[in-house]
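Journal club prep — side note

Before the paper discussion, L.F. wants everyone to see what a predicted structure for a comparable chain looks like in token form. Sequence:
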Amino acid sequence: MFTVGEIAARLQGEVAGDPTVRITGLAPANSAGPGDLTFAENEKYLAAANQTEATAVIAFKDAEANGKTLIRVSNVRVALAKALAYFKPEPSYPGEIHATSVVDPSAEIDPSAYIGPYCVIGKACRIGPRATLLGQTHIGDRTEIGAECRVFANVSIYADTKIGDRVRIHAGTVIGSDGYGYVFDQGAHQKIPQVGNVVIENDVEIGSNVSIDCGALGSTVVGAGTKIDNLVQIAHNVATGEHCLVISQSGIAGSSKLGKYVTLAGQVGIAGHLTIGDKVTLAAKSGVMHDIPPGETWMGAPAQPDRRTKRQLLALQQLPDLIRRVRQLEKESAKFGDKSSQIGD
């Protein structure tokens, strides 16, 4: 339980109303009750929040109090994220190695790290301070995991992976599996050995059931601050820049390079050996077959600049009417053709 004043101090907000009122939880407006803190990004949501039994509201800077205690902030979403962490902190784990884990004697594990049940840690691995590995995680030989990382259950990390600080990897993800590399020889597809690794930089979050392949030679790299959604495939020798957003069911083929602040909406497919510039946005279900210059928005399959694709979509919507008009014109012209033949006769 916290007072509004204590919460406002954490959020660097301004209280309009009683700072001593106590808050017991945080809830959306449609279910907030007495003791709850809710939030409102604009006038419409503030009006809705004022109709609830919520005790206080995180609101925008110019919000007018109307019987509710407000915490005015410059950015409601940022404040909400901080408040959620304040009310619902993640579980913390003591520095220990569970008795059921199998740890190679050559592995270096910081005393503050937590190694959960049935984890396997290979030769010459290094696990940093306050790292947390939950149950049944497999860490291959010579892998490095930095400080304050959290690896959830049933994650498999292959040998030689390098992971920075404050990285979060969710359940079922596989990092460092073989890239899809074959050469056709004597009537069969022969495997090209995949001998590279994966490098994940600081502050990356990787969703559940993601596959990130190791490089065939060299590294597959995920840039600092990048956030990867569930069910994403990143192929061998791909490199993403910093702070990219890769949304669910997207796939990036081998050796393609993403710049900084690139956004791939859901189910985007990027062909191999392409370069996607900084701050590019790709709309959902885009199929990318060409390099894209920085700062552009593309959509469609095959993907094109968004304005061009929108014009084509508008044209397609007009196509049925155009077909009807053409058929009508054909009927009219046929009548004129019959009349001209009668005059000639």
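L.F.'s comment for the group: The two ends are 100 Å apart (CA to CA). Keep this in mind when we get to the figures.
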